[in-house]
Amino acid sequence: MQGSSQNLVTQVMKGNHYYIPVYQRRYSWVKVQVERLVDDLRLAEEQHRPHYFLGSLILDATVEGINDFSVIDGQQRITTISLFLMAIRDTFPRTDETHQRIDDLYLIDKYDHENVHKNRLHSVPGDEEEYVDVLENGAAAKPSLFRDTYVLFQQVLKDDPKMSPQDWLTVLEQRLVVMSITVQQDDDAQLIFESLNSTGLDLTEADKIRNFLLMDLHGDQQKQAYAIWQKNEKLVGRGELSKFFRHYLTSLAVRSKITLEQQIHDDYRRFIGEAPGFDRIDELRKESQVAKYYSLIRIRSITKLRITPIHGPGSC
């Protein structure tokens, strides 16, 4: 593992491609988080601070391509800053040198002949289309969180009485610093992620299990595993996944005591992930069969609760 303090825009984002793995959460920053970022950056500028620290960024450099990185942690921040750069870019005419420079260095790879949109940041399935829509169409894009964030940045740039778009670009290029941590071949990416995660959004036990199952897979295997995970998530319900895994572990009778809520991931990794012959895709398929039964039992229980009459005092 290698780590160093770097400028997010000019040292990390410049000239590179970033892929957000399928197991990561979709983009979720809303107005309150974006406004807090803007207020913090503005305060740093007013106080003439040389740097504004945006937290850690954990990257996996073992993916194919010299300038290709998988974002293990920090996808919300790097995506938000990309949207800020788009908003700044679009205050300049397309023929303006600054407009073209932002595109060429941070947002677009015009030499990427395999990608029709040529975007440097690649979001998770479901987000990619919405992100590219804003990249290419700005405020005219279809409604999405990406568009909401972009429009909010547009409003900031328009209403700021002290800082011009060029001033904001200077802040991003000169003062925005992250601790960039690059995972090497022999590092345990998940343990690093869990110990340094700073997104502000707590990981559920199911989130940790998902990451454990998918992080060490790549390419088609990761896509295949994620497809099964999504199927299971749909069957069980996203909010029920941690509870499902707790029942699943208990049903396997791998330990004498019932798994505690805060130990679901640890027990899963210990009793399932470290078992001889463990195969991630085979395990997901087993869980898929169990999820079908779990879903049926849960639906019947909910239906029974809804139709069971409640007899109050004096009722027959």
Topology record:
Blueprint: E1 2-7, H1 8-13, E2 17-19, H2 31-46, E3 52-60, E4 68-73, H3 75-89, H4 97-107, E5 121-122, H5 128-137, H6 145-159, H7 165-175, E6 176-183, H8 189-196, H9 205-214, H10 219-236, H11 241-251, H12 264-273, H13 280-307
Describe the structure.
The chain has 316 residues and is of the alpha/beta class. Helix content is 53%, strand content 11%. It is built from 13 helices and 6 strands. A hairpin with a 7-residue loop joins β3 (52-60) and β4. It is elongated. The protein starts with a strand and ends in a 9-residue tail after the last helix.
- Largest beta sheet: what is the strand line-up? 1-6-3-4-2-5
Q: Give Rg in angstroms.
A: 23 Å
Q: Would you report the number of β strands? A: 6
Low-confidence segments, given as residue ranges, are 302-316
Residue share in β-strands = 5-15%
Please outline what is shown here.
By secondary structure, this protein is α/β, with parallel strands linked by helices.
Keywords:
single chain, 316 residues, alpha/beta, six-stranded mixed β-sheet, 13 helices
